[in-house]
Specification:
The protein has helices at about 25-30, 45-75, 80-85, 90-95, 115-125, 155-165, 305-310, 340-370, 370-390, 400-415, 425-440, and strands at about 5-10, 15-20, 100-105, 105-115, 135, 145-150, 175-180, 200-205, 210-215, 220-230, 230-240, 245-250, 260-265, 270-280, 285-290, 295-300. The chain has about 450 residues and is an alpha+beta fold.
């Protein structure tokens, strides 16, 4: 487009102004209508590009719509088992599960020794009596190895065990309280619960955890199985009524278990059993025990190297605990002057052991018969054994074992007492277990 310019023409006598304009300006000057240009900037190639772009966009939208419709139909008509399988994956619910309730635990310390082997054998002796014994290394600068029983969910259970151990000769047994998990933070989520649902509590104890199931009533049957390396399954029952399905996760910082679930199993005769499934690491060790209405699951780490050595020790090197405090353990080491007394004691106790071994098989059959004549005959034998044991001179190193044997005889006499009003068979079985623990291999107190 030309730009108007004004040029000056030099004439000899006159000067004229010359104005240069383009076509549009000239039409405007003359009052003519302006001409409208059509498609002045569009060429044939550009028209094809626009058509191709529009076609691509239409095709993409159609494909996207088809995918969305197909996905929606697949979701609506998907089979229910597949959906249920996805919902059971561990990561699909972990963030929404409520956290297990936690509380303080109560254990009973029966011995504190400087020798790890002596503490392990002390716990083994108590386990032979049917009590849940374990060992631990105490914290602090001056470490000792302790043999303990438990843990329990209530102080009443711990005190009852303490009194029982006192009757077996462990008179220095003391109660230990562990509150490491009592105030653990937890996430709340409402659950549909009723009086028929079992209560679940997680306890922290020295070097272990204990998961407690509080049942509606005392279960007559409790079985445990490990269907795979990371699952522990427990069935307990029968229960009066079914329980609601529930599920929990472990508190933050707890590594010996992941999740816990509870459901009801229907059995023949309209009976209901509670099935608990515990997801735990492959390396975790689990032990199941019952205390009345409570079912305990004790979870521990793999055995330490010193405990493995103690288990591999030959039977001829049996070691028993000194039930006294660790301060007096050094004084309990055998002195040269006491070796002869110990030899005489073992010679004198040998015929009593043989007589108990002869009588012990008849104890269970006697209580099953219920005959007063059989009770009287067996009690006469047990009374003579108790008299002989009570009159013996016992070396200090054998005091705990000897007292346990006397207690076992008294329990057996109680089971054959005609006026006994409790469970005779359970009382007799307790006596048999105590005899087995008291008549183990010869005892040697380990020097520190």
């Amino acid at each position: 487009m030309l730009t108007p310019r004004v040029q000056k023409a030099e004439v000899e006598s006159q000067q004229y102004a010359v104005v240069l304009v383009n076509e549009d300006q000239f039409n405007q000057l003359m009052g003519r209508p302006a001409m409208r240009q059509v498609n002045s900037r569009i060429v044939a190639n550009e028209m094809y590009q626009r058509y191709a772009t529009l076609k691509r966009r239409t095709t993409t939208a159609a494909v996207l719509l088809l995918v969305l419709v197909a996905g929606g139909l697949a979701w609506v008509f998907a089979p229910q088992p597949a959906i249920a399988m996805v919902s059971k994956l561990p990561w699909s619910k972990s963030s929404t599960l409520p956290t297990l309730y936690t509380g303080a635990s109560f254990s009973v310390t029966i011995a504190s020794l400087e020798s790890a082997d002596a503490a392990s054998d002390a716990a083994a002796r108590v386990r032979s009596l049917g009590l849940p014994a374990f060992t631990r290394r105490s914290p602090g600068k001056y470490q000792v190895h302790q043999a303990m029983v438990g843990p329990f969910a209530s102080l009443d259970e711990a005190e009852k065990t303490q009194r029982h151990l006192g009757g077996l000769g462990y008179r220095t047994a003391r109660i230990f309280v562990d509150e490491s998990l009592r105030t653990a933070p937890r996430g709340e989520r409402p659950l549909e619960t009723s009086a028929s649902d079992p209560g679940v509590l997680l306890l922290g104890a020295p070097d272990r955890l204990s998961l407690v199931f509080e049942m509606q009533s005392e279960p007559r049957q409790v079985t445990s199985a490990r269907p795979d390396s990371s699952t522990l399954q427990i069935d307990a029952g029968p229960m009066p009524s079914p329980a609601h399905p529930q599920q929990w996760s472990a508190p933050d910082g707890v590594h010996l278990l992941h999740t816990v679930s509870v459901e009801t199993l229907a059995a023949q005769g309209a009976l209901h059993y509670v099935r608990a499934r515990i997801a735990l690491p492959e390396f975790a060790k689990a032990n199941v025990r019952t205390e009345g209405r409570r079912v305990y699951v004790d979870l521990t780490w793999p055995l330490e190297e010193e405990e493995r050595r103690a288990r591999k020790r030959p039977a001829s090197m049996e070691v028993i605990q000194d039930p006294r405090p660790v301060e007096s353990a050094a004084a309990a080491a055998p002195k040269p002057g006491t070796l002869a007394d110990e030899a005489r004691y073992r010679e004198a106790i040998a015929p009593i052991h043989r007589r108990i071994s002869e009588v012990r098989p008849f104890l269970m059959s006697a209580v099953q018969s219920g005959s007063t004549d059989v009770f009287a005959a067996l009690d006469q034998t047990l009374a003579s054994l108790e008299t002989a044991l009570s009159s013996m001179s016992v070396p200090q190193a054998e005091a705990g074992q000897h007292q346990l044997l006397i207690s076992a005889v008294k329990v057996a006499r109680g089971a054959t007492d005609p006026g006994f009003a409790g469970d005779r068979q359970a009382h007799a079985q307790k006596a048999v277990t105590m005899f087995e623990g008291a008549m183990a291999a010869p005892v040697v107190i380990a020097a520190p």
